[in-house]
Amino acid sequence: MDTKKRKAFWLYVVLVYVITWLPWIPVELNAAQRGYVMPNPQTIPALIENGFQDNTHLTLVLLTIVSILLPGTVIAAIIAQAYESRKEGLRGWWQRCTHWRVGWHWYGIAILLLVILFLPAFIYGLVKGPIPTAAQVTSVLIWSVPMFLYTFLASGMEEPGWRGYLLPSLQTRFSAKKASVIVGIVWGLWH
After folding, report:
1. Among 16, 39, 74, 96, which residue's Cβ finds the most Cβ atoms within 10 Å?
2. CA 134 → CA 3, 47, 123, 142, distances in Å?
3. Cβ contacts of residue 80 below 8 Å, gap of 6+?
4. 146-157 burial string, b = 16+ CB within 10 Å, else e?
């Protein structure tokens, strides 16, 4: 890897950690000191059931959500790509990120598979469990849209950085397997 590519790699790695972790750490420390329940997949039911303890709790939850949704991988990729190869590199990065290589029918198949996977559990719950109340159904429906948006934005916004910038950049020097392992290590530590 030439010097500029090596520097761009480390620039990306440092920026992705700083942009995503730096705003989040003080919020989480403050919440832990106050004993607040913060949002994650395991605590969402408790937050729905108990609500927020006070305005500070609400503010910290909102700051957590904003920091999670902050597309640090995208921002880091744009900066590193611009450093590495200026406007031409940014144009190529954008094209890699926006070129969809599968037909729309595959998205339909993916959604159908989700329905097929979750339908037995849903039917089992209806047959064996108590029928959900209107309040429970409303609560699930109210949270489904924000959770979908969170999943799409938080997880979906990672890929332009990891697979749109970092992986192709590493593959100019390393094999696909070795580049994937390096991305996996950086990504795993980041998570």
Report:
1. 16
2. 62, 19, 18, 12
3. 8, 9, 11, 12, 15, 165, 169
4. eeeeeeeeeeeb
Q: Measure the CA–CA gap between 180 and 188, rounded to whole angstroms.
A: 12
Which residues lie below 8 Å from residue 170, measured CB to CB, with a gap of 6+? 9, 178, 179, 182, 183
| Long-range contact set of residues 182-190: C-beta below 8 Å, sequence gap at least 24 | 186/13, 186/16, 187/162, 190/16, 190/17, 190/20
| CA-wise closest residue to 155 among 191, 107, 180 | 191
Q: Are the C-beta atoms of 161 and 77 separated by less than 8 Å?
A: yes
pLDDT band for position 109 (cuts 50, 70, 90): very high
pTM of the model: 0.68
pLDDT (tens digit per residue) in 144-186: 777 777 777 767 778 888 888 899 999 998 999 999 999 999 9
Q: Name the nearest CA neighbour of 95 among 184, 17, 165, 178.
A: 165
Longest CA–CA separation in the chain, Å: 64
Q: Is the pLDDT of residue 137 over 90?
A: no
Higher-pLDDT residue of 139 and 83 is 83
